[in-house]
Specification:
Chain lengths: ~425, ~425
């Protein structure tokens, strides 16, 4: 492997700086140019040669010396156009851009295939955790049945803090923003957009089908209260924002992102703070879990560099790089509608304190074919009303929604305060 | 990838049967022959064509039609000789044989290199958990600083049961033997030989050096008592059999297998029953963990098949398979002696109930430069003696041994009942 591999780096923010530091350790890698917005900006990056900075990103994707374009600028544009041009020019791509891969991955994969090059994006899902290559290689003998994970560090940090301190969502969010764990506009994390991009990428790879990220059902964590966390704990569960993709019997894909009560016996229940983890279930392997830092300068750089070195190592020997790195999703996934999905449910309601209230709840659920597994009511609230928490058996979302509608029509019902899905 | 890959399978025991079932799902894989000890043995394996069974393993390794030899017979001989012949005949190897790779890996890797073929052995470490390929690829940008794991399911099952039931080692071992989780001669598992083979393979890959498995320090779990497990829990720890490999400042490798108190805050503390898990620490990624089933028919078959498909996929396009699958350990590791290793220690002693006993223990440790962090004594035992448990700060093994020797010379000391290392 004496051949040197020449890199053009697009972007020199947090991930770009880390990538530069890590790639600099490898003698067989040459970073020829780095495209930035402002070459005069004061940067304090060890080992940075200011002479290779340029504002002309087009120059990099057109440079015949460059073997691999490493895109760590983020955002859809101009990253999309630059990568397309690079692919047309026969360059391999390594990217950490989850928005781009989730939204335009399939266009890029086709273009890569036409041009006999590869696109690698390990860093786009769960930062430093190796997950895409294990799915493509070590686990390739499996029919994957389910992927479930904690794929967003910000929301996991918030939920962990809410649990350990009993604090309200808004208070912890503010604290997370001050610590730099949450952005000033936190909706991308809190509303599950970020996790949806990641599960979209994973599902497309694991089930070998094109997934439409815009069809993924999403709920955020902003409606979770410390009351729910405390009841969940009493039932033996923690609450986590889960990104989920599973195949139904009819080969439809049930993909969603929402908070869930996770059984404390499940390995995901113990993934705390900003850590990420992904559980993969396959017909042969059973269940394996990958956990670690899902973001950050150096962990993300670790994954970007792993991809670069994998391509570089192959280029040293073979004309065409790893077939295992290729992406061929020729069929569109049939994506299950949320109404047709099945879960167990946690339902917290507030009712008048009258005889027959619990019986009514039970009958309403029963009429929709929903079995109740557990129920908690502890005395009365200070205002004289009752807080009742139900855990259901596996039920269809549409039946749950109808039961909730019916509950609301009861005179005794004041509020359905929360409905959260459950994973055992 | 229309080219079909032809397999010769050596062995049709538990792992062999699973491998056959999984490989049969893939149209591009043809299993030409399976070498077994007895072709007439009654086998109940779905999809098995009895006509491809043979007792002539030599025939397979010499068959020019066969691209990959999959060795799942286990044991050193004749597996070693057969694989050598296969390599000389230009065949790729996939094996689940940890004893063989730990003992003769380097000979085989050199022979593979000479013959421009690869040996893959994902299944040899931690069964179904992808760990070798992630180390070679996704994490290849890292300097690995430490690997620590629970790599033996039998001992983890025993320790988990001892913890949950408060039972003695011998009782749980017997139960595990009845359930088929432990062998009739359990020493390979219980004494840490199995885990030593696995950490030897991992360390050699992660630190890119030849490791001598016979130099790895080992202690079994048979001296762990429910008393230790209960004290550990009080200090905030669980007890696990840990296989550990870390690089010292002088680039020596500190590799050992022994029980450890693992902080309940460490992800390994929550890996229970027969599950395995491996934590990898790298300079860029920080800490990542891989967990799942470390043995069993189908999980092991999952890893074997992943290796077969990786080679097959590459053979469809390129003349030579994945450079990332190659093994080049040209330097021998300097392996640290146990005396020079550093740990925190848990020490449980039984002493006379006399004034100054605790002070004496403290002074003895102090003279060797060992700081004590915690100490527990709760009243007296029924026989009027005292049980005292110490937790030390980081100390050299040789200082601990000298301190223990000195403690023994005190008139008041009855027994040093247990010494266990600690990981935070």
């Amino acid at each position: 492997m004496s051949k040197k591999t020449v890199i053009g780096l697009l972007g020199l923010g947090t991930v770009g700086s880390g990538t530069l530091k890590v790639l600099n350790k490898f003698d067989n890698i040459i970073i020829k140019n780095i495209a930035v917005r402002d070459t005069n900006k004061k940067r304090n990056i060890e080992g940075l040669d200011n002479n290779i900075l340029t504002t002309d990103a087009e120059m990099l994707v057109n440079d015949p010396d460059i073997d691999i374009i490493v895109e760590v600028m983020g955002g859809l544009h101009p990253a999309f156009e630059l990568i397309k041009k690079a692919l047309q020019n026969g360059k391999h791509i390594v990217t950490a851009n989850k928005d781009l891969i989730a939204k335009h991955g399939e266009d890029l994969f086709s273009l890569a295939k036409e041009n006999n090059v590869v696109i690698m994006y390990e860093a786009a899902v769960a930062g430093g955790i190796p997950i895409l290559m294990p799915l493509r290689q070590s686990l390739s003998g499996n029919s994957i049945t389910k992927i479930a994970g904690i794929m967003n560090g910000t929301t996991n940090y918030i939920l962990t803090k809410m649990e350990s301190e009993g604090s309200e969502f808004n208070a912890v969010l503010k604290e997370a923003q001050e610590l730099g764990y949450a952005e000033s506009d936190p909706s991308g994390d809190v509303q599950g957009h970020d996790a949806a991009n990641k599960i979209s990428i994973l599902a497309s790879l694991a089930f070998n089908k094109k997934v439409d990220v815009d069809k993924i059902y999403r709920e955020g964590i902003d409606y979770i209260s410390p009351i729910d966390i405390s009841y969940a704990s009493e039932f033996g569960y923690n609450i986590k924002l889960i990104a989920l993709a599973q195949e139904t019997k009819d080969k439809a894909l049930d993909i969603r992102v929402h908070p869930m009560l996770i059984s404390k016996k499940h390995p995901l229940a113990h993934i705390n703070d900003v850590m990420n983890a992904i559980v993969v279930e396959g017909d042969a392997v059973g269940q394996v879990m990958f956990s670690g830092p899902g973001a950050g300068e150096m962990p993300t750089a670790s994954s970007v560099t792993g991809d670069v070195l994998s391509i570089a190592s192959e280029l040293g020997i073979n004309e065409y790089p790893l077939p295992m790195m290729r992406n061929n999703h020729s069929t569109n996934a049939v994506q299950l509608k949320i109404d047709d999905s099945r879960s167990r449910y946690y339902i917290r309601v507030n009712t008048d304190n009258l005889p027959g209230v619990i019986g009514d709840l039970g009958l309403t659920c029963g009429r929709k074919g929903i079995n109740l597994c557990s129920i908690i009511q502890k005395g009365l609230l200070p205002d004289g009303t009752a807080r009742i928490v139900l855990l259901t058996a596996l039920a269809y979302e549409k039946d749950i929604q109808e039961a909730l509608k019916e509950m609301y029509q009861k005179r005794t019902m004041k509020r359905v305060e929360n409905v959260i899905r459950v994973m055992d």
